[in-house]
């Protein structure tokens, strides 16, 4: 590790965390092993300032180590842009390794001008077992090129350095996983328990270059403490990228409730009455304002006062689904001016990323992304809905990758496998004491089932409470059952 520039290194570590270049959760890695921490440095191409800092640090590192070589070569694909910048900054010619030989023409695996006996420095983003570096080294060596050193951005400390050393290549990393963990802890982004648990995992899970265990304890990887359904709401608050998600996690933890009331009533007074009665038991009140026949500004003022008095957040379940420009208008303008009062809204992912960008475009001034957030629908509780696995997977990508992760607070879905990132909140509707299907295709599961089997962080209950003879008692009972199920879920 470079001793100097420590402040710059620390600032970069925090920045990488903020842009989701690495995250905590329960992830399957390329070598087929589960990990509580996952790096995805592909995202840095979208952040030129980060790209610049990383490559500047790499160049400084190469200089400090006095590594001189005739060529540089990035391990495909993530490290290619980094290697390009290093090549240009140092005036060192680059070599490009193809992953598959061309089917036509020269059939070359290595592009660029070189001679047998030339030296080449490897550039790589993240090293776990070192197998990707070794693939590149092998192809270079088969052309007679000499490789003795590799510079990498992150060493996960799982045996990669030793594995590549066996093939005569020294590894020099900018960051070790331990440095990143300690820096995030110092900066208040993760708890000490997270640092310790990841350290325990790393110590136990050392990997050979073929992906097999070196003799560590495989059960530690399998019993990943970072699976989001095993983490407490408090610790997930620290991992959340959206400020509203952070707020909601903390609210749930301190108020001890994971119940959302779906206040699907068509008269303003009836909703206010329901909000007052259920207020002490809920973390979130969900509205469909377009079904309120006597909607007025004073209704919103009164609803906000109840939200403050009883400490819950407001979600307008608008399920936006249009092009960015229309959604922006629907969110900020019109009769309801949703962006002015709803802490959270829901949106379909059908139009792609532009839906999130459209919503964000309506914000500004008092209603910044700091105070607002969206839940994206990745699944629906309606029987016969058209959502398939691919749609779910792509919805997860919108929620966890890209420049809008600070605005996405959670995902509306029905199953724990919808997303792994613990900083997002799973909202699950279709909850009732009595399981079954209503006349219009709504499917219900019990509070225990949605929390323990389906991964719900918040259970949404509408008619289960609205139609009860004693609303307060019923809301309290749903709260108790959802909360007890959550406590059982996180109990070690
Ligand atoms: O998949 C979904 C998504 C949502 S947000 N299924 C749903 O039922 N919802 C909403 O949850 C729906 O619009 C309604 O407001 C609430 C469920 O109400 P209930 O009366 O069936 O509990």
TrEMBL record:
Substrate binds at residues 264, 286, 381, 442, 462-463. The keyword Glycosyltransferase applies. Residues 258-478 form the Orotidine 5'-phosphate decarboxylase domain. Keywords: Decarboxylase, Glycosyltransferase, Lyase, Multifunctional enzyme, Pyrimidine biosynthesis, Transferase. GO terms for biological process: 'de novo' pyrimidine nucleobase biosynthetic process; 'de novo' UMP biosynthetic process. Its EC number is 2.4.2.10, 4.1.1.23. It holds the Pfam family Pribosyltran. The active site is at residues 317, 319, 322. GO terms for molecular function: orotate phosphoribosyltransferase activity; orotidine-5'-phosphate decarboxylase activity. SMART domains: OMPdecase. It comes from the Eukaryota. Pathway: Pyrimidine metabolism; UMP biosynthesis via de novo pathway; UMP from orotate: step 2/2; Pyrimidine metabolism; UMP biosynthesis via de novo pathway; UMP from orotate: step 1/2. In the C-terminal section; belongs to the OMP decarboxylase family. In the N-terminal section; belongs to the purine/pyrimidine phosphoribosyltransferase family. NCBIfam families: pyrE, pyrF. This is Uridine 5'-monophosphate synthase. The gene is Dvir\GJ10158.
